[in-house]
Design brief:
Blueprint lengths: L7 H45 L12 E5 L2 E10 L2 E14 L2 E10 L4 E8 L10 H4 L33 H28 L1
Antiparallel strand pairs: 1-2, 2-3, 3-4, 4-5
């Protein structure tokens, strides 16, 4: 087999061929993995809703809607028994974490009390800010059962009721900001609209 002459045209054709093969391979891998990835994400979302919302018998994912707040979109998953709203799970966020974005799912009952929460995504410091998934469920950091409309859900360093995670005040403030954002959306989209009916 003869060696190709090293000129611009031949180098371009070889590079084009390699790029086309790589693109085809990536496209093939994407088409094979797209379905399973979407299913895994849907299952994760479903588990998060079930973990935080009051008991329901509808499919909140089918009834979800979004609302713009604080420069981003929040997703609201209404929880119903029969046709009556009993609360909701709200996918909220804040960009003010120590390492940026924190996404969380917060569940509220009909009165606006926090049923539970789960942290969906964060890049906070391991062993410090990463403790938020458990910290706010126990002891003086516990937010479960509290109503952000009547309780001062800010860190005690800011004259609030909640103890921050030790050495992670920025992460704690950000987490509580995400909870407050979820509560504002809940009041606006569920409580106020439910009272008008």
């Amino acid at each position: 087999m003869a060696k190709l002459e090293s000129n611009f045209r031949n180098m371009f054709l070889v590079l084009l061929s390699i790029t086309a093969i790589a693109a085809a391979a990536l496209g093939g891998v994407y088409s094979v993995t797209k379905g399973p990835i979407e299913q895994a994400m849907l299952q994760k979302q479903k588990k998060a809703i079930e973990a935080v919302a009051p008991a329901f018998d509808n499919n909140p994912i089918e009834e979800q809607f979004t609302v713009e707040m604080n420069g981003g979109l929040l997703t609201i998953f209404p929880a119903k028994k029969g046709n009556e709203v009993v609360g909701a799970a709200i996918e909220s966020f804040t960009n003010n974490g120590f390492s940026g974005l924190i996404k969380l799912m917060v569940g509220f009952d009909l009165e606006g009390n926090i049923v539970n929460y789960t942290v969906l995504e964060h890049k906070e410091t391991p062993g410090l800010g990463s403790k938020m998934n458990d910290w706010f469920r126990d002891g003086s950091g516990n937010i479960k059962g509290k109503n952000p409309g009547t309780a001062n859900l800010t860190v005690s360093k800011d004259k609030g009721e909640i103890d921050a995670i030790t050495a992670a005040t920025i992460s704690s403030r950000a987490f509580l900001e995400g909870v407050q954002t979820a509560y504002k959306a809940y009041v606006q989209e569920i409580i106020e609209k439910n009272q008008k009916q």
